[in-house]
Structure formats: C-alpha cells, structure tokens
Amino acid sequence: MPTTSLSSREFNQDIGRAKKAAQNGPVVITDRGKPAHVLMTIDEYQKLTRQRQSLVDRLSMPDLSDVEFEPGRADITLREADLS
C-alpha cells in the first residue's frame, strides 16, 4: 500500500487528487515539512478503530455455531518445591 505525501498547500489546492490518492493508501499531509495529518478512506479508518473481540465473543458468533471446540483435559501434577 503506497503512502502519498502532500504539503498543506498542495492539499488545499487539489483536494480531489488527495482523495484519489487515499483510495490506494494513506495520504500524509505535512505542515512546514513535518507530518501533521493523515487522510484515509472511511473503510480503512473503520478497520483501524474496530473494537477487538474476545475469544468468547468470537466463538459465540452465530456463523460459528457449528464449529466444535473440545479442548483437551489439562494434566496438572503437584511437586515439591526445591528450596535449597
């Protein structure tokens, strides 16, 4: 995914160009040569901000109801602590 860099002046003069470039990857907008803002599509933004689900949430999803999940039994044995 290519990153495009535009100065604030270039961005203001040709917003259409920036929007087209954002379809291919993030557009970094600079102020006085330093990165200040990033323009991206709403789809990319939603991917970045989507809340992560826990394993329990994922396994309880309706489309996964036919997936069998039978974890093996844990074999835990106690042993003496060596304090020497």
Automatic annotation (TrEMBL):
Matching entries from SUPFAM superfamilies are given as: YefM-like (SSF143120)
Residues crossing the lipid bilayer are none
Q: Which InterPro entries match?
A: Antitoxin_Phd/YefM, YefM-like_sf
Pfam families in the record? PhdYeFM_antitox
Job description of the protein: Antitoxin component of a type II toxin-antitoxin (TA) system.
Q: Which family is this protein grouped under?
A: Belongs to the phD/YefM antitoxin family.
Quote the NCBIfam families the UniProt record gives: phd_fam
What name appears for this protein in its UniProt entry?
A: Antitoxin
